[in-house]
TrEMBL record:
Pfam families, sorted: Fer4_7 (PF12838)
MF term (GO), any: oxidoreductase activity
Keywords, comma-separated and alphabetical: 4Fe-4S, Iron, Iron-sulfur, Metal-binding, Repeat
Domain 4Fe-4S ferredoxin-type: 38-67, 73-102
Protein name: NuoI/complex I 23 kDa subunit family protein
Listed InterPro entries: 4Fe4S_Fe-S-bd (IPR017896), 4Fe4S_Fe_S_CS (IPR017900), NADH_quinone_OxRdtase_chainI (IPR010226)
Length: 153
């Protein structure tokens, strides 16, 4: 009984001092943590079709279909069964797949959560934040787009 009274007193204290804890979504976009893992973004131009992301995925979320010359024909990602562990992003040698901070995706049926490479390419950045630009250490030098000398040690 004392615990209920203490929690009610705390609630009334917060209600009377005028501070709000809620966000009026979708009118006001909520702040997400910089470490938040949201919808994937895929760059077909960067991808070398090494299939490392498919091999490292713990629950077979990523499916890659290649032709006889190892060119990627299909890149499918089942967003509904993804656990957002970020292993696919970490193992990619050319940063072709990134987890954005975008959490706004819905579907009416389970099969609509399967995204192909074109749909993943068109995923918008959350508040125009590109994770490649804010990443430490600077991985652009690793993939040949950075300025200056590359130190391989």
């Amino acid at each position: 009984m004392i615990g209920i009274l203490k929690s009610m007193a705390r609630t009334m204290e917060n209600a009377l001092n005028g501070e709000t804890f809620t966000v009026e979504y979708p009118d006001v976009a909520p702040e997400v943590s910089p470490r938040f893992r949201g919808v994937h973004k895929f760059s077909q131009e960067r991808c070398i079709w090494c299939r490392q992301c498919e091999n490292v995925c713990p629950n077979d979320t990523i499916q890659i279909v290649q032709d006889d010359k190892r060119n990627g024909e299909q890149y499918n990602l089942h967003i509904g069964q993804c656990i957002y562990c970020r292993l696919c992003e970490e193992v990619c040698p050319v940063d072709a797949i990134l987890l954005t901070q975008n959490f706004e995706f819905t579907a009416d049926a389970k099969h609509e959560f399967v995204y192909n490479k074109e749909q993943l390419k068109n995923v918008p950045w959350y508040k125009d934040i590109d994770p490649l630009e804010s990443r430490e250490p600077d991985r652009n030098a690793w993939i040949g787009e950075g300025d200056g000398e590359i130190d391989y040690q």
